[in-house]
C-alpha cells in the first residue's frame, strides 16, 4: 500500500493538489464544471451505497470493520476532492464562501430560536418568537 504522508490539510492545499493531479495527466480538458458536478454526484452515490440497507447506524460506527471505515473514508474523500475542484474551476473561493455561509447560517438559525429543534428556518415560528412584524415574515435573517 502507498505510504501516506501526514500533513496539515487545507482547502487551498487540496485545490492545488487537484490542479497538479489534473495538469500532470492532461485532464484539464475533462474537468469542466458539468463533468465535475456529475463526477461528484456519482461519488455521492457510491458513498450512499455504503450505508444502503444498513438502517440507522450508531455514531462513530463502532461495529464497522477497519476496511469498511477505510472505504468510507475513500468515498468521502472523492466527494470532497471533486467539490474542491468544482469550486476552483468555477472560480469560487471555497474557503471564503464557506466562512460566509457559516455566518449566514448563524443568522438564519439563531441559538435562542433553534436550540433543540430541527425545524427548517422557514418553519421557525415568528408569531411567538419574533413578533415585531406581526408574524408575516418567517425568515429571521430578513
Ligand atoms: N477524470 C478524473 C478521474 C478521477 N479523478 C480522481 C478524483 C477522485 O478522487 C478519483 C475518482 O476515481 P474513479 O473515477 O476511479 O472513482 P473511484 O476511485 O471511486 O473508483 P471506482 O469507481 O472504481 O470505485 O480520482 C479525477 O480527478 N479526474
Automatic annotation (TrEMBL):
Domain of life where this protein originates: Eukaryota
The protein's matches in Gene3D superfamilies, at most eight in alphabetical order, are given as:
MazG-like
Q: Which GO terms describe its molecular function?
A: dCTP diphosphatase activity; magnesium ion binding
Q: Where in the cell is it found?
A: Cytoplasm, Cytosol
- A GO CC annotation given for this chain: cytosol
Question: Per UniProt, which keywords does this protein have?
Answer: Cytoplasm, Hydrolase, Magnesium, Metal-binding
- One Pfam family assigned to this protein is MazG-like
* Principal location listed in the UniProt entry: cytoplasm
Annotated segments matching region Disordered: 118-142
Q: Which cofactor is recorded for it?
A: Mg(2+)
Q: Name one GO biological process term.
A: dCTP catabolic process
EC number(s) on file? 3.6.1.12
- Record field: catalytic activity: dCTP + H2O = dCMP + diphosphate + H(+)
Biased composition of type Basic and acidic residues is found at: 120-142
PANTHER family xref list: DCTP PYROPHOSPHATASE 1, PTHR14552
Query: What is its biological role?
Result: Hydrolyzes deoxynucleoside triphosphates (dNTPs) to the corresponding nucleoside monophosphates. Has a strong preference for dCTP and its analogs including 5-iodo-dCTP and 5-methyl-dCTP for which it may even have a higher efficiency. May protect DNA or RNA against the incorporation of these genotoxic nucleotide analogs through their catabolism.
Assembly, per entry: Homotetramer.
Name of this chain's protein: dCTP pyrophosphatase 1
**What is the scientific name of the source organism?**
Cucumis melo (Muskmelon)
**Lineage of producing organism:** Eukaryota, Viridiplantae, Streptophyta, Embryophyta, Tracheophyta
